[in-house]
């Protein structure tokens, strides 16, 4: 209903369990490897959906290579919201990351993972004008448009990795820090109170 959460708790539990199983499987398949890091820019592939217009078109790529030189996997971090299919799309789709991943795996091998970077408010492919092979503009809100965005970002990542350098360290480190921001939207506050948004609220850094 309008005043109840649409989150499927049992489905989320299934997702978390599947992630844990995949992580355990990956740990059981560890092999020696070296990491190659790459960084590039993607001018003309990102727009800003809201004012002020600030474009962050940096793309970061990481490649894991085994002792024989074969690619085990790649990771691409890029600040673009996966919505090339447009706001009227009702299909369940991975949007442009599907085409990015497919191009990475086709050209380099291994398994490719796409991670959305900091998209702010809002780094997006919407509003781009991309020319196709014949010079005609690629239709907006289409799979052809999503493919163009994904494959061009993948090409940028591949070029960055080919010009990249081996990582100085093989250690992987994860850092996190809590960040508290004021919640000024009264509808969000009401939704949280009614349980429509099932997230904890904080006051002074403590649960409200």
**Given the helix and strand composition, which structural class is it?**
alpha+beta
Low-confidence stretches: none
Determine Rg (CA atoms, Å): 20 Å
Helix content: 25-40%
Strand order of the largest sheet: 5-4-3-1-7
Strands, total number: 9
Helix and strand run: HEEEEHEEHEHEE
Distance between the termini: 26 Å
Largest sheet: 5 strands, mixed
Q: How many alpha or pi helices?
A: 4
Gross geometry: globular
Overall residue-averaged pLDDT value: 93
What portion of residues belong to β-strands? 15-25%
What would you say this structure looks like, in words?
The chain has 208 residues and is α+β, with helices and mostly antiparallel strands. Helices cover 29% and strands 20% of the residues. The protein is built from four helices and nine strands. The protein has helices spanning 9-27, 96-108, 143-162, 186-194, and strands spanning 33-41, 47-48, 58-66, 71-78, 111-116, 123-124, 165-166, 202-203, 206-207. Helix 2 packs across helix 3.
List the helices and strands and how they pair.
Elements: H1 9-27, E1 33-41, E2 47-48, E3 58-66, E4 71-78, H2 96-108, E5 111-116, E6 123-124, H3 143-162, E7 165-166, H4 186-194, E8 202-203, E9 206-207
Parallel strand pairs: 4-5
Antiparallel strand pairs: 1-3, 1-7, 2-6, 3-4, 8-9
């Amino acid at each position: 209903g309008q005043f109840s959460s649409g989150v499927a708790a049992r489905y989320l539990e299934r997702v978390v369990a599947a992630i844990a199983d995949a992580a355990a499987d990956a740990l059981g398949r560890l092999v020696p490897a070296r990491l190659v890091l790459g960084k590039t820019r993607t001018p003309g592939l990102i727009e800003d959906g809201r004012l002020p217009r600030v474009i962050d078109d940096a793309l970061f790529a990481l490649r894991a290579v085994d002792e024989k030189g074969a690619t085990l996997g790649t990771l691409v971090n890029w600040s673009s919201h996966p919505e090339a299919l447009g706001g009227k799309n009702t299909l369940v789709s991975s949007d442009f990351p599907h085409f990015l991943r497919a191009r990475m795996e086709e050209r380099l091998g291994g398994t490719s993972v796409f991670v959305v970077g900091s998209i702010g408010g809002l780094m997006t492919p919407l509003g781009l004008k991309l020319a196709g092979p014949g010079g005609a503009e690629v239709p907006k809100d289409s799979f052809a448009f999503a493919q163009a965005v994904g494959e061009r970002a993948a090409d940028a990542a591949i070029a960055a990795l080919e010009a990249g350098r081996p990582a100085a360290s093989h250690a992987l480190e994860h850092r996190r820090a809590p960040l508290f921001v004021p919640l000024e939207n009264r509808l969000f506050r009401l939704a949280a109170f009614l349980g429509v948004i099932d997230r904890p609220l904080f006051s002074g850094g403590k649960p409200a």
